[in-house]
Design a protein that fits this description.
The chain is α+β, with helices and mostly antiparallel strands and about 270 residues long. The chain is built from 7 helices and 8 strands. The protein has a 5-stranded antiparallel β-sheet. Strands 6-7-8 form a 3-stranded antiparallel β-sheet, with no helix packed on it. A hairpin with a 5-residue loop joins strand 2 (about 155-160) and strand 3.
């Protein structure tokens, strides 16, 4: 039991440090302010802002409730130490709380300006032809399953299918607490080396895919940005994918390019 007692004391010290880093008192003040906004009858006149406010309320509430529950459970462990017959149950509880405290500790590292935001992720096929497009589809499935395990929402914004298989490019929005903070490290080039099923000689092939991760920004994040109409180049082109003959004969897609920065936005639907 002495070993368990030492472990519990270490958990309490670690938790106290983490709680201070999470600044729960400030989050309670922030929550009160958001709750006040939610009671404003005019909030839902701007539905995007309203959804953002409600998501923030949910995320902060969940974090506060988790911290308070861990604190309560840790306090209960001290009382259980007096009963040696409960050692097996106590060991399980200590193991569970250890995992929860480590998860909370990770939150203290997510202190960047946009870490708490939703994320917009894009995956583009690089060198490797059909193999690279198949690699994009594998990455897309992997990130989708990760979102499911985190109970995050994932919504496809734009997708272009590969000519033979896989995905040429896909952009999707990930909705959940600290989504950008958790995923921002995925940005960069991802490489796959394998015996290609698309190669008749079954040779080893190297394929590349580019992953981009951006935080979801709100209009108030960039109030001073001005886009001049003369700086925008508009192009129309034919959509890809489903839609029958119309998508192959009519320019139903549009591309906007901001000439000074090179930023491009496309829409096919």
């Amino acid at each position: 039991m002495q070993e368990l007692k030492t472990k519990i004391e270490e958990l309490i010290l670690s938790f106290d440090s983490i709680k201070s880093g999470l600044d729960i008192d400030k989050k309670k003040v922030d929550l009160a302010g958001l709750d006040a906004q939610a009671l404003d009858l005019n909030l839902w006149q701007d539905q995007d802002n309203a959804r953002s406010v409600m998501q923030k309320i949910g995320d902060i509430k969940k974090e506060i409730e988790t911290v308070e529950k861990v604190e309560k459970d840790l306090s209960g462990l001290v009382d259980l130490l007096a009963d040696e017959s409960l050692q097996a149950d106590l060991e399980k509880e200590v193991s569970r709380l250890d995992k929860e405290i480590k998860a909370l500790k990770l939150r203290t590292y997510l202190s960047g300006e946009y870490d708490g935001r939703n994320a917009v992720m894009a995956i583009h096929a690089g060198q490797g032809g059909t193999e690279a497009m198949d690699w994009v589809s594998m990455l897309f499935r992997m990130y989708g399953r990760y979102c499911e395990r985190k109970n995050w929402g994932a919504e496809v914004i734009d997708q272009t299918a590969g000519e033979e298989a896989g995905i040429k490019s896909v952009t999707f929005k990930i909705t959940g607490g600290y989504a950008y903070g958790y995923l921002k490290g995925e940005s960069g080039t991802h490489r796959l080396v394998r015996q290609s099923p698309f190669n008749a000689d079954n040779l080893r092939q190297t394929s590349f895919a580019m992953v981009e991760v951006l935080p979801e920004l709100e209009e108030k994040d960039s109030p001073d940005i001005e886009i001049k109409p003369e700086d925008v180049e508009v192009q129309f082109y034919r959509s890809g994918g489903h839609g029958g003959q119309n998508v192959n004969k009519v320019s139903t897609a549009v591309r906007l390019k901001h000439i000074p920065t090179g930023i491009t936005v496309t829409a096919q639907t």
